[in-house]
Amino acid sequence: MYRHSHHPDNDAMSLLQAVKDHLGSIDTWPSYIIQYLFDDTTTPRVMEELTAFFIGNCVPKTLAYRLYHACKPTTNELVRQLFYTRYSISITSKTFRRM
Known about the structure:
99 residues, 71% helix, mainly alpha
């Protein structure tokens, strides 16, 4: 019996497809977003830009982070916390602006 092997590239591709379901073709994404996903430099500004893009396009927080982590597997817990915190701050500020 054939068993599908767990391979990081398969995970990244399936996550990319799931995000594309929210955003459309990767060809339409801003080039800086693609660069941020694959660039080795993680800064607060990169996190702010990525989370703003994903939130603005209704990509769920967990899916967005899983894609980011698949593209940059060397991310650590601090980066995950920063990513999730940025999501929470953005969602909270949007909620207050609507009130």
